[in-house]
Amino acid sequence: MADASMACFSGGIASLQGLLCSSRGRSCSQYNVENAAVKMRSKFWSRIEHGRSADGWLGKAPGGRGGRTPRLGFCRCQAAGIEALVALHQSAVLGVGVGLPCTVMECGDVVYRSTLPQQGFQITPPGVALTLLIVAYLWSTPGVAPGFWDMFVLAPLEQLLRPSFRKEDFVLGKKLGEGAFGTVYKASLSNPNLLKNSGPLVVKKANEYGAVEVWMNERVRRACRNSCADFVHGFLESNPNKKGDEFWLVWRYEGKETLADLMANKDFPYNVEEVMLGMANVDDLPKGPERENRIIGRIMRQILNSLYQLHATGIVHRDIKPQNIIFSDDSKVFKIIDLGAAADLRVGINYAPKEFLLDPRYAAPEQYIMSTQTPSAPPVLVAALLSPVLWQMNFPDHFDVYSAGLIFLQMVFPNLRSDSGLITFNRQFKRRGYDIKSWRELVESKPNQDIRHGFEILDLDGGVAWELLQAMVRFEGRQRISARTALAHPYFVRAGLLGSSFMQRMRLQIIRATQQERSENVTWVSSLMAKSGTKNAGGFTEAQLEKLREKEPRQKGSIQRNALASALRVKRKVSRTIDSTITDIRKERGIKRVNWWNRWET
Ligand SMILES: Nc1ncnc2c1ncn2[C@@H]1O[C@H](COP(=O)(O)OP(=O)(O)OP(=O)(O)O)[C@@H](O)[C@H]1O
């Protein structure tokens, strides 16, 4: 009986194996089934050997009263439980003439694969570190990743959704200004329904540089619309009276006064307090340095905040001056206007190292936002991918901070608000090697009323304003404070009454440490790197060369230094040759440089 039962059992195991392979829809693991079979078999024999009945393993024949006759073909093995029993029974039927499913299904391959280590997405520390590094790079200023999102998603969407205009839609009014790049008019819409909340507008008819200004204004509208005048639309129109076409740029009318207009008033800065806060909310403090300091601080914070937002999106204005800062009657804040000279360093637009003649009264001593040795912008994709590196090497945003520093000075010292006063300051400052402490010594040796008044403001609260001013007008662009750091300066961020002195001193120490002069060798290495540019991109300004000469270590060159210098000389020569060859070919073939970003250019 036992033999018969065993035969049945073995057949059942084989069938169970087949059934498991075919009916459970899982991978067929021959090993698992055989394992189960061996276990069951040994249990079976151990029961027999110990003289115990195999009854528990063998079912009774149906209908047989107490009979223990196993039937071949449908033996009812209970060993694997009721499920296995059913399976055995069914598989005994299914298995006939079909063969073991594993032989049919080439289970060996599956078995082999099941023994391999599990594969799939695995998180490893180096993988995480690399991903973080890439993300940090793509999001660091000027923002490669946000740039692609802006360029390929937001810009086309905006193009689709925003209303567009023609010149017939506008009625031009009073002329507001005329500059090198165009004429500006106050205007209104011939049909006010064309624009939601349409009020008075400003229209600028600009020459070929208008395309750049449209680009910058559209970028700003998407990235930081509150920092600049509210831009409505820009389009190209043909002008029959003039040669060539002209660009029409339209903004909402922000207000009638620029910071220059407000500073020209002898009641400055109290007149700004009135427009900013309203007559009812002006400060209770008596008129004097302290109250003036508060008002000037508010103005400076707004200017730096707008600059910070522009810089965060990769735009450097390059023409920051009181005439280009307008007071918005609606939002009661100062906004930046005139982006015609701005450069978008995210994609290299309007970045031509030597093309712009900026306002010399407010331009930083380096004159150019990038080292003039940095080659002109490469194709857009390359420019975008390289932009974080170039930004970190050149600190182009610090150019605007210098201009903002001069505005700070003008607000503090009444005698510097006129053109002649500012020109005199610039001359003295340059002679003193752009050292603001040295300039202070000079003017304090023969102080007048305005100078005394100005230093009284700057020396308030332990000289915190003087500290900020020094950081903003440093000669070296890379050592100047950024708009973002300036906003965190204790001049703007006052701690509470109790913690004030301690916290303020701490913060000041941190800012001083980060702004510290870099070591001589770092300056030397960066100057060498800067020198390694192309002829096409131009040379250093005289001031830069003077500074470099002063800063270069005087010790004799080591072998490594000489080798590095020779390598750089060779590299310069090669790039110069390539540049001049390309220029010659362009000239010969009459190839014009095409700006891909100018959608009106043919
Ligand atoms: N959105 C605006 N709202 C109100 N007034 C504006 C606005 N934009 C410009 N203006 C006025 O128009 C004047 C000229 O504007 P803008 O500086 O943009 O022109 P420009 O041709 O570049 O002049 P410039 O070359 O002298 O800088 C400004 O000084 C300002 O008074």
TrEMBL record:
Name this polypeptide is given: Protein kinase domain-containing protein
Species: Sphagnum jensenii
UniProt entry tagged with the keyword Transmembrane helix: no
InterPro entries: Kinase-like_dom_sf, Prot_kinase_dom, Protein_kinase_ATP_BS, Ser/Thr_kinase_AS
Protein kinase domain span: 170-492
Keywords of this entry: ATP-binding, Kinase, Nucleotide-binding, Transferase
Amino acids binding ATP: 205
Pfam family, one: Pkinase
